[in-house]
Amino acid sequence: MNLSDIKVFGVAGEPFWRISRQDLDRLMNTLDITFVRLSQCVLAAGGYLPVDCADASTFYYCLRGGGFLLLDGETPIRLTPHTLVIVPPGRAMTIAATEHPTRLRNVGKCCEGAFAPGSSYRHTVGTSQPTLVLACGTFRASYGPALDLFASLATPIVETFDLRDQLHQVVACAIAQLPSQDGGVGPMSAALLKLVLLALLRRCQVSTKAWVEGFAILSDPPIARAFAEMASRPALPHSIQSLSRTAGLSRSAFMARFSAAVGEAPMSLLRRLRMRHAAELLSANALSIDQVALNVGYRSRSSFTRTFRGYYGSDPSEYRSKAQGARSAGAALAEDPIEESDAA
């Protein structure tokens, strides 16, 4: 065990290890946020808003007021200023601006006409003074280009911050950008949401809440250290032997714990990391095929091409051509404006 790893005592008094600050920083550097769609939800007293299922993770941050987030099979989640909730994909819910959430019926059900986060930049429920204001949205987050941060999340994450964390300013800034039709709103939203998720991941070092244990890779520091090495430097000639040395484990222990934490064998994930990174480099069109191969750890172009074809069904040059064609077509289409919506 690395001496820089952190021991935290849970609610039952049992110690468990947390990832070190240095290894967490390396993982954070590989964190990629995509598919960000944001909205602001404003609810008057007594109002409630059914929220539809999403095929990506969703987040809810309470900017002002109070209420509840209701999901089937879960204890009502109280919303107060600075509360952040991350909900797994495929979960419908209801936002309630009320102090008596159990009085509502049929909450947390997928229903026709339910609100989809990101479908409008501002969604208002009721006409009186708002008592609950939320920022919400859908997103995907991954370590490196391959490992979904929330893939193992089964229940919502609930964490409350305060003014010192400065998340309120970050989220408010992201929401303020939504009505603008200027370019760069999407990348800016992704960058701001990344700050929010980084603040959440920092809590892994000190929080004793159950959600931390849902991130298996974060609660097994030696495996997190080896994964960070793979994700941050995919071009190195990694092997089971070198990675197990990085983790400070025997070969057999490393293999078993890596598969348990990540759900995939180390070399299989390394190939996937390399191929996803190669796809990004090819799409950027700044390097030759040989240079891309070297940048993802392949000395042989033929070996790289064979592996890439197995993942993407086309040669690297064909993939690059298709990516450039899709980019040109996308640039020629004007982006549809996002509207403000109101609900009775």
Describe the structure in your own words.
With 344 residues, this protein is α+β, with helices and mostly antiparallel strands. The chain folds into two domains: 27-205, Jelly Rolls; 233-328, Arc Repressor Mutant, subunit A (Orthogonal Bundle), CATH 1.10.10.60. The protein is 36% helix and 23% strand. It contains ten helices and 14 strands. It has helices at 21-29, 167-176, 185-202, 221-232, 240-247, 251-262, 266-284, 289-295, 301-312, 316-332, and strands spanning 6-9, 15-18, 31-44, 48-51, 57-65, 67-70, 77-79, 83-87, 93-96, 122-125, 130-143, 147-148, 157-160, 340-343. Strands 3, 5, 8, 10, 11, 12, 13 and 14 form an eight-stranded mixed beta sheet that branches. A four-stranded antiparallel beta sheet has the order 4-9-6-7, with no helix packed on it. The protein has a two-stranded antiparallel ribbon with strand order 1-2. Strand 6 (67-70) and strand 7 (77-79) form a beta hairpin. The termini are far apart. Mean pLDDT is 82; it is low at 1-17.
Spell out the blueprint of helices and strands.
Elements (H helix, E strand, L loop, with lengths): L5 E4 L5 E4 L2 H9 L1 E14 L3 E4 L5 E9 L1 E4 L6 E3 L3 E5 L5 E4 L25 E4 L4 E14 L3 E2 L8 E4 L6 H10 L8 H18 L18 H12 L7 H8 L3 H12 L3 H19 L4 H7 L5 H12 L3 H17 L7 E4 L1
Parallel strand pairs: 3-10, 10-14
Antiparallel strand pairs: 1-2, 3-11, 4-9, 5-8, 5-11, 6-7, 6-9, 8-13, 11-12
Helix pairs in contact: 1-4, 2-3, 4-5, 5-6, 7-10
